[in-house]
Specification:
heterodimer; A: mainly alpha; ABC transporter involved in vitamin B12 uptake, BtuC; two-stranded antiparallel sheet; 13 helices; 2 strands; B: 352 residues; mainly alpha; 4% strand
Chain lengths: 312, 352
């Protein structure tokens, strides 16, 4: 029983890792005050580009950089539309989602069925961390994973420190809450928004690359299959906090696979009903937070509102 | 240096010109993309038109695609006019289809007109109830409706998936996960070779146009969208207005679900909407939320989709290219709105 539980939780961490990257990316974007619903599109762009570069070069670094550049390119379209041209964020985000989906289908057309090269598979094979992996229960779950998973931990913690313990992170949070105020304190609002939206897009791209290079390691159309939308839910679940995003991503990752696991154990429980849980919980959280009108766990105050200095 | 100045008012003609120019620009950019695929863009565009309107058959197929887009976009536009970002059309379509299908599956032997009317009522009811939930949250606690409606899409899709693979799985389908086909009584009749959904679409375009333009409620919705404070001072019942417009918005989307289940797939399935709810948002936005323009744009988008599958077979350009073209058009029109709202001037004092 214990062994099965550990095996399940280990798999939950793996399933949660692409969600973690995408969620961290969207947290950073939303902290800058922009609601980008194009996560699914940016993940797909990263997935296909990362896979393609990986296949052509066999080089891990090149593949990851390719994925990040592609995700950031999706973010750039969104940033240019919503920051410079002050277009509606909801519609711009949906446009990026549509674009990314078409982009990955077209680029991936000749890749269908291809497998990630051996060099990349070897690089991302399970790596037991010394000492840490010996911790009972937690060790095998968290620290007998592939390097990409560890990268997720590192990025999450670094983003947490950046957001809550540095002055630049404070500026960013100020922009999400009250850009006029940040502007008055001579923070370059547009530049901050651009940088963070691009970086957020790059993280979404990495999340996509994890799917195509490590999780599935064979190219298939629509490899992200809705995880981008779950990531948007996760941002709320994690209340825009990178640390909470770690736990949230692994929880949602577990939900993603629990139905099939139970089925293998002979318990019939429909996965499609489990799939409802993340969305329902997210709605519940949103409602409760808005009912309490508490500032804690609330979205950045100016989320979704374009900033135009002359409007003040 | 350049600076941006807010325009006072722009003539309607000029703003339409800017939008048409931006669509043209998108077509040019996409043409360049086609050149990269080593194809002749003019030929590709020509064959897209041929593929969507070239024969009676293809025209009918295009109209079949335009019907759900048009009605769902009308629904979305009512909510958007109020600045209620209902991106839950997809879910409302699913729930409409679900409610309508319940009548079709449980009372298959009712007389055809009665059953169809019941199914329509069910579709409207399902869609509007599904939209009502976020509306109540919004009216009561100002809960962000964008995310709630987005999440509810997936709840609806997963719910129908569950039904399809579980309780409603057709035992006669030999293990294949599908819901039983409707009886003939539950299928929308054809008129001129296309199911009568197209008549609904035309009527609804007129109705929504009149409602938004010439009725008190329609005016109140527009005022509320412009400014909540103005609405409050002029004595508009804000909560009531939100609820009514959302019921209408969701109801229209729910009707789309009924039409798709009854007129197109002949049963309920988790992909009965197939992304129409999202494309409808794009259509509504491109049309500046105006009902007559929605009709035009939905036919255009349907033609893109239909033409997209045609160029796949004749040029080997993947169907997904149509998706990229749709997104590119949207990018450019979104961007063009900036030039409708602002004009660029040289900063005073700059040397020429």
């Amino acid at each position: 029983m214990m062994i099965q539980l550990i095996a399940f939780l280990t798999a939950a961490v793996v399933a949660g890792t692409p969600l973690l990257f995408a969620t961290l990316g969207e947290i950073i974007i939303e902290r800058a005050g922009n609601l980008n619903l194009g996560v699914e599109g940016m993940m797909l762009m990263g997935a296909v580009t990362g896979f393609m570069v990986g296949l052509k070069t066999g080089n891990v670094m090149a593949a990851l950089i390719g994925a990040m550049v592609a995700g950031a390119a999706g973010g750039l379209i969104f940033a240019f539309l919503t920051i410079t041209l002050r277009a509606n964020q909801v519609v711009s985000g949906l446009a990026v989602a549509t674009f990314g989906s078409g982009f990955s289908t077209i680029l991936g057309r000749q890749l269908v069925g291809q497998t990630a090269p051996q060099a990349i598979k070897l690089f991302f094979k399970t790596l037991n961390l010394p000492i840490l992996s010996k911790i009972p229960f937690i060790g095998p779950i968290l620290f007998k994973q592939d390097p990409f998973v560890y990268l997720g931990y590192i990025v999450a913690i670094m983003l947490g420190i950046y957001l809550f313990n540095t002055s630049k992170g404070l500026n960013l949070r100020a922009i999400g809450e009250n850009p006029g105020c940040a502007d008055a304190a001579s923070v370059n609002v547009s530049l901050y928004k651009y940088i963070h939206i691009l970086f957020g897009g790059a993280l979404c791209g990495l999340g996509g690359a994890y799917l195509s290079l490590v999780y599935i390691p064979t190219w298939q159309e629509n490899v992200v299959s809705g995880r981008g939308w779950i990531a948007i839910a996760l941002v709320i679940f994690a209340s825009w906090n990178p640390y909470k995003a770690i736990a949230g991503a692994f929880l949602f990752g577990g939900l993603d696979i629990i139905g099939f696991r139970l089925q293998n154990a002979g318990i019939q429980f429909p996965q499609s009903l489990v799939d409802i849980i993340p969305y329902a919980v997210t709605i519940l959280i949103l409602v409760v937070v808005s009912m309490k009108k508490s500032k804690k766990n609330a979205p950045p105050k100016n989320l979704g509102v374009a900033y135009f200095r002359e409007d003040r | 240096m350049l600076r941006f100045v807010k325009r006072d008012e722009i003539s309607k003609r000029k703003s339409i010109m800017i939008k048409i120019a931006s669509v043209m620009l998108a077509l040019v950019i996409f043409g360049i993309f086609i050149i990269f695929l080593k194809k002749n863009p003019i030929q590709v565009y020509q064959s897209m038109i041929k593929g969507s309107f070239g024969s009676a058959y293809s025209t009918k197929e295009t109209i079949k695609l335009a019907i759900p887009l048009c009605i769902a976009a009308l629904g979305v536009s009512v909510a958007f006019k109020m600045q209620f970002w209902n991106i839950g059309a997809e879910g409302q379509i699913m729930m409409g289809a679900f409610f309508a299908s319940m009548f079709a599956l449980k009372m298959p032997n009712l007389p055809r007109p009665m059953l169809l009317i019941l199914m329509m009522a069910g579709g409207v009811l399902g869609g509007s109830l599904w939209a009502l939930i976020p509306a109540i949250f919004k009216a009561k606690w100002k809960t962000n409706e964008t995310i709630v409606t987005l999440m509810m899409n997936y709840i609806a899709i997963k719910w129908v998936t569950f039904l399809q693979y579980g309780p409603l799985k057709d035992p006669k389908a030999k293990g294949f996960p599908k819901i039983a086909n409707f009886t003939q009584n539950a299928i929308l009749p054809d008129l001129f070779g296309v199911h009568i959904g197209w008549i609904f679409a035309l009527i609804l375009v007129v109705v929504v146009y009149i409602f938004m333009k010439y009725t008190k409620k329609g005016y109140e919705i527009a005022v509320l969208g412009e400014s909540e404070k103005t609405a409050l001072y002029s004595g508009i019942n804000i909560k009531k207005t939100i609820i009514i417009s959302i019921l209408l918005s969701g109801g229209l989307c729910g009707l789309v679900g009924m039409i798709q289940a009854s007129g197109v797939s002949g049963t309920l399935a988790y992909n009965v909407s197939g992304g129409v709810g999202f494309t409808a948002i794009i259509v509504a936005w491109l049309s500046s939320l105006s009902a007559p323009i929605i009709l035009v744009i939905s036919i255009l988008f349907a033609a893109l989709e239909q033409g997209g599958s045609f160029i796949q077979s004749s040029f080997g350009i993947p169907e997904a290219a149509a998706q990229i073209l749709q997104a590119t058009i949207l990018f450019f029109v979104l961007g063009s709105e900036f030039f409708i709202k602002f004009k660029i001037e040289r900063k005073v004092g700059d040397a020429l």
